[in-house]
Design brief:
By secondary structure, this protein is mainly alpha-helical. 59% of the residues lie in helices and 8% in strands. α4 crosses α6 and α8 packs antiparallel against α9.
Length: 391
């Protein structure tokens, strides 16, 4: 992080501490610590101590960023050009809350970002303490760990260790999701923001796998999408039943019993669905425990895109009848620049690994060029044929 930006963050921390705003203090301090932990990707890739699995996925990140720019129209920013190992499994923990008899989420408002239906904490203990205070006043609460978040271009977000370790498709999908936030973000509209980014994540991942001719990856992606759809069907039905129960003019005890019955039915359906899966999905921890209003809200925001279930295709005749040679030209161009980028990165890593040899070769070439300098003809003022008339 540049000294100017680090100083700005530290100044913000001091100002917030003076105001006594504990939440913003932890947020600013957590962000500053995250930025201090960054290392340039080139340096991490050149370090012999970097684990092979980390090195391989960081190379995937580099290729995915180029793909995001060329194929998806996502912004080319300074984000994800650094790596940070923060030594924990989640970068932040989000707290969701809703009243006992309502599906309307609690909202918290922030400078710049507007209002959101969650509150993020850099320390799990603080998140759970905050959730406990909300629960004590009667709210349904849920605390979920998050692998990444976007600062919307205010800072150069790094690749985090929390983003690695899953499949390459999940990694690039997460990158596309966070970059989509930098492309389009509507302050105060969590449903739209998460829906848009999830849509870009899904469509971008499918295009990435298709572009790389990754048939096994596509099969795995389709399997995950079908599981997601099955879970969404359960959650959608649950929320419909709850909405009817909460709106009904019935005694509180009866409403509470209907709620318990609806949650138990949804839990049983998910457990039956989950029994047929060999591997646990990433959202299993969000659904394995007893459901509530806040938990169903978190699942809905995370899993369902609010824009469309399929990509809306242009109906213009020129686009629909684009010739095959144009498609081949675009594919060749994309492959060429992707290969050029990968070749440059490979050469850069080799140069960084052999610094002494690189310096020696550069010095030798400089010396050779100086030695050849006398052989180059020079003349301060070249002769010229110039007529002159004086009166």
């Amino acid at each position: 992080m540049s000294r100017l930006r680090l100083a700005a963050v530290l100044a913000l921390v001091a100002a917030l501490a003076a105001c006594g705003t504990g939440y913003y203090l932890q947020a600013a301090a957590g962000q500053a610590a995250l930025l201090r932990a960054r290392e340039p990707l080139e340096q991490v890739l050149a370090d012999p101590a970097t684990p092979g699995s980390v090195r391989r996925q960081l190379l995937v990140v580099d290729a995915a960023l180029l793909f995001a720019r060329l194929e998806l129209g996502l912004p080319a920013t300074k984000s994800y050009r650094h790596y940070a190992d923060i030594g924990r499994t989640s970068v932040v923990w989000n707290v969701f809350a809703a009243p006992e008899f309502s599906l309307e989420p609690r909202e918290w408002c922030y400078p710049v970002a507007g209002c959101a239906t969650y509150r993020g904490w850099f320390k799990e203990r603080k998140a759970r303490d905050f959730a406990a205070r909300l629960a004590a006043r009667g709210d349904d609460v849920f605390v979920g760990g998050v692998a990444a978040y976007s600062t919307l271009g205010w800072f150069a977000d790094p690749v985090l260790n929390t983003m690695l370790g899953n499949t390459d498709a999940e990694l690039v999908g997460l990158l596309f999701h966070e970059l989509a936030h930098q492309r389009v973000y509507v302050a105060g509209d969590t449903l739209f923001n998460e829906g848009f980014s999830t849509f870009i994540e899904e469509e971008g991942t499918r295009r990435w796998l298709t572009f790389r001719n990754d048939a096994p990856g596509l099969r795995d992606f389709d399997l995950r999408q079908s599981r997601r759809a099955a879970v969404l069907a359960i959650v959608a039905e649950l929320r419909d039943v709850l909405a009817s129960a909460y709106a009904a003019d019935i005694p509180t005890a009866e409403r509470r019993q209907q709620r318990v019955t609806a949650f138990a039915r949804a839990q049983a359906r998910y457990n039956g669905l989950r029994a047929g899966w060999v591997e646990a999905p990433w959202f299993d921890g969000w659904l394995a425990s007893e459901p509530n209003n806040a938990r169903s809200l978190a699942v809905s925001l995370t899993l369902v895109p609010m824009l469309a279930s399929r990509l809306i295709k242009s109906t213009s005749v020129p686009h629909a009848k684009r010739r095959a040679w144009v498609e081949r030209l675009i594919t060749f161009s994309n492959n060429f620049f992707l290969g050029l980028d990968n070749t440059y990165l490979s050469l850069l890593r080799k140069v960084l690994r052999h610094r002494l040899i690189t310096v020696f070769v550069a010095a030798a070439l400089l010396g050779a060029s100086l030695a050849l300098l006398p052989l180059i003809g020079t003349e301060f003022i070249p002769p010229s044929d110039e007529g002159e008339v004086r009166v």
